[in-house]
Amino acid sequence: MKIFLKTAKCLGGFVLLLFFLIGGTWPSTQSALAAQEKTIGTAENGGIKLTITNYAITNYGQEMILYYTVETKTGNLMDENVKGLLKNPEISIADNRLQGMDANHKKISSQKYLGAVRVNLPQYIPATSTAALSTDAILNQKGQWTINFQIKK
């Protein structure tokens, strides 16, 4: 019996070690989704193109993260100390108007930026819903960008 318990304890430690090794190399869901760059929708104004590349519904359906890119032909848009690239992003889902928060962004080159907008979802939305992302300024550039798309829970 003692040998069995000792073997089980060692085997359990090995399984735990294996789990941590595999888990440590597995990419997080959010970074994996952000890396899959596709086009869900795009809008262009004044030489600045806003593209939604992906979205994720997280936090047990209570939150959505929209991944986007901003490309410009005019050069450098971003001040490194600014908190948000999109000013007051508004997200409409079904008949709900929601205020998004520009959660994070990163400069890829002098003409391309990646970012994410986070929004709390209403308590009930249909399994498939029409949605839109709108903003009237990207950093210090005024304009109107609206992207219509569909989300699926």
What does this entry look like structurally?
- By secondary structure, the protein is α+β, with helices and mostly antiparallel strands.
- It has 2 domains: 1-28; 36-152, Sandwich (Immunoglobulin-like).
- It has 2 helices and 9 strands.
- The protein has helices at residues 2-25, 29-35, and strands at 41-45, 48-58, 63-72, 90-93, 96-99, 101-109, 112-120, 128-138, 141-152.
- It is globular.
- The model is unreliable at 15-35 (pLDDT under 50).
Q: What's the CATH H-level homologous superfamily of the largest domain?
A: bacillus anthracis domain
> How much helicity do the residues have?
10-25%
- Are there runs of 5+ residues with pLDDT below 50, and where? 15-35
Give the end-to-end Cα distance, rounded to a whole number of Å. Answer: 51 Å
How many structural domains?
2
Mean residue pLDDT: 78
CATH class of the largest domain: Mainly Beta
**CATH level 3 topology of the largest domain:** Immunoglobulin-like
Run of helices and strands: HHEEEEEEEEE
Task: Work out the strand percent.
Answer: over 45%
* Level-2 CATH architecture of the largest domain: Sandwich
